[in-house]
Design brief:
Bound molecules: carboxymethyldethia coenzyme *A
CATH superfamily of the largest domain: Citrate Synthase, domain 1
Number of domains: 2
Shape: globular
CATH architecture of the largest domain: Orthogonal Bundle
Strand content: under 5%
Number of strands: 3
């Protein structure tokens, strides 16, 4: 048992004491209502999920356990993972112990690499990555202990164990996919002397003489780690884990959601869009040319990838963090420069389109441009970076769902006929009140 287990057990005990009677005492208190617009509109704003790891106030952006994300940019991903899990930043001793724990866990087995090398033709790295992750499910301690009859109070512990196993090897898995998919030579084994993020960067094999790529990867991992519970990947993982499917199934399911172009794949879409602009104009266009191209994209019925958000109504602070990093490390990179010009042009155009709720950039509008400038030019791989990082948040959230012992998720659906009747009844009631 390492310090994370001790710390978590202490937190779980305290939390359970606090929460013991809460649902019973306040069970009938209304905290949210659902309108027909919300039912047809992706449930925006419906408060029906409990998530303590992070929140996203629309006017502020991501807070992890109450700390603004911009205050965490110099932390290691392991520190942020500890924070997500326990609600506190680790001491130096706790951090070292946590890193040692992760390094002591099993590595990716040979049969998983054999599966990778048997994949035929050209495959999307996200599909390969997720397939390989699922191949590790046979090692689930949660499933094994559940089958043997583990008490409900200990579910969280087995979830934590699987989660730490996943986090320990997920960078190696991702880097292995990268090197195989793009025929970059042999896999680079993990280096015990490196921290989690630097190890991931090193295993990718990107030339990094001054360590700035490792720094970018650490930052990227911190920024993308969590974004409360309603986003597609976190919500999917939460829903799947509520059936007591183990974390391998739950994280894999969440990552399938992340692979959609309106969610995690947006960073790939952005890069393709930026490269398309550079190609069309033979380099960086003028602002006027860019404005025309943005209108062209919109008129053809496409979204401007990397702009807009389901919750945020300000510039995403994660965007700001990456922009600051780029200005310091690669101010003259043409793709990064273009991403900056896009930021100068796009919000004003989107503000003029009434239906768009948020004209501001999200993190995906800039993250790929820096990966590209650092030498990861294979943009289909970008969502895998997002996936490795988001696994930190998804696993923290499902561990806490077991602390709360949330039941299997099962909202109620209605058919259209019932909806019409409900609306009629509700509107009759409203007109009587008037
Ligand atoms: N470009 C063009 N149109 C946009 C737009 C954009 N960047 N953002 C929103 N809109 C459109 C929507 O497509 C929608 O149009 P329809 O009503 O015709 O379908 C309308 O504006 C209203 O959408 P909204 O309420 O502003 O936004 P949603 O909450 O429905 O969707 C999001 C949010 C992120 C899916 C959307 O802004 C979008 O598609 N952005 C581009 C893709 C992207 O960057 N995704 C990454 C988000 C971050 C992440 O999860 O990783």
């Amino acid at each position: 048992m390492s310090k994370i287990h001790v710390k978590m057990r202490e937190k779980v005990g305290k939390y359970r004491e606090k929460a013991k009677h809460f649902a019973e005492e306040h069970g009938d208190t209304v905290i949210s209502e659902v309108t027909v617009r919300q039912l047809f509109g992706g449930q925006r704003g419906v408060k029906s999920l409990l998530c303590d790891t992070s929140i996203v106030p629309p006017d502020k952006g991501l807070l992890i356990r109450g700390i603004p994300i911009l205050d965490l940019v110099n932390k290691l991903p392991e520190e942020v993972y500890w924070l997500l899990l326990t609600g506190e930043l680790p001491s130096e001793e706790e951090l070292r112990d946590f890193q040692d724990d992760l390094k002591s866990r099993p590595r990716v087995p040979d049969y998983t690499w054999a599966m990778l090398h048997s994949l035929p033709g050209v495959y999307h790295p996200m599909a390969a990555f997720n397939t390989l992750l699922l191949s590790l499910e046979r090692h689930s301690k949660f499933r094994q202990q559940y089958t043997e009859g583990m008490p409900k109070e200990e579910h969280w512990y087995a979830m934590l164990e699987d989660s730490l196993d996943i986090i320990a090897l997920i960078p190696e898995l991702a880097a292995g996919v990268y090197r195989a998919r793009y025929e970059l030579g042999n896999r680079i084994p993990p280096d015990r002397d490196l921290d989690w993020g630097a190890n991931y960067a090193n295993m990718l094999g990107i030339d990094d003489p001054d360590g700035s790529f490792a720094e970018l990867i650490r930052l990227y991992m911190v920024l993308h780690s969590d974004h409360e519970s309603g986003n597609v990947s976190a919500h999917t993982a939460h829903c799947v884990a509520s059936s007591l499917a183990d974390p391998y199934y739950a994280v894999s399911a969440g990552l399938n959601g992340l692979a959609g172009p309106l969610h995690g794949l947006a960073n790939q879409q952005v890069l393709m869009w930026l490269l398309g602009v550079l190609e069309k104009f033979g380099g960086n266009p003028s602002k006027k040319q860019l404005e025309d191209f943005v209108h062209e994209t919109l008129n053809s019925g496409q979204v401007i990838p990397g702009y807009g958000h389901a919750v945020l109504r300000v510039v995403d602070p994660r965007f700001t963090a990456i922009m600051n990093f780029g200005k310091q490390h690669c101010p003259d990179g043409p793709v990064f420069k273009l991403a900056q010009t896009v930021f100068e042009v796009v919000p004003d155009i989107l503000k003029g389109i009434h239906k768009i709720s948020d004209p501001w950039p999200n993190v995906d509008s800039i993250s790929g441009s820096l990966l590209y400038q650092c030498g990861v030019t294979q943009h289909p791989f970008y969502t895998v970076f997002f996936a490795v990082s988001r696994a930190l948040g998804m696993t923290s959230q499902i561990v806490w769902s077991r602390v709360w012992n949330e039941p299997i998720e099962r909202p109620k659906s209605v058919n259209f006929e019932t909806l019409e009747k409900m609306v009629k009844e509700a509107e009759k009631g409203n007109s009587k009140k008037k």
